[in-house]
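Good morning C.,

I know you're traveling, so I'll keep this short. The sequence:
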Amino acid sequence: MSEHSSTSVYVNWARERLHEMDAALESFGVKAAEAEAASKAKAQEIFADLQKRRDDLEALLKTQAEAGGATLASAKSELDQHWAGFEAQMKAYFDTIGQQAEQQKTTFKDIAAAQAKAWTESADRFRAAATQVTTTGTADLDAVFTQLKSDAAQAGAHLEQLKQAGSASWSVFSAALGESRKAFDAANQAAWNALTKSSPKG
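The tokens, ready to paste straight into the viewer:
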């Protein structure tokens, strides 16, 4: 179970980031084409780079997943670097097209929705995996799943407050998304730790 759990934690992490990347790219695509002539070429260049970074991350994920659990820990730092580069380019995109509050808010909403989707999918995978373990330790699993739901609701409520707020800078939106992402990663790890303990092989 331990290799399965680490693989699952890794896969959940990567899927969450890919959901966010897809949401950002979808949000940026139309605006890059509509940008003013002075910034259009640069916006499209950054958009192309973002698309490449997203595809590179997916390719790396597939390669490392096929290599097995032993390579996951070392691959995580490389994936983190890909993600950090993507985030930096998102900021560069906003700097290029100008501080368009509506575009930033739209992108924030799209990425927040992608995070919510990742929470739901992750919880579904936990439930499916939990059916594979014995009844030993199910109280621990129930507690972890309850906490997971609570964490998801709390993160969602905070993001919803920002959605409803008037204007906010991309740095504020980005920080809120970062906090939600950290909560997701911690909840993801806690759930798989509980599954590992409850496994007859754990």
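Safe travels,
E.
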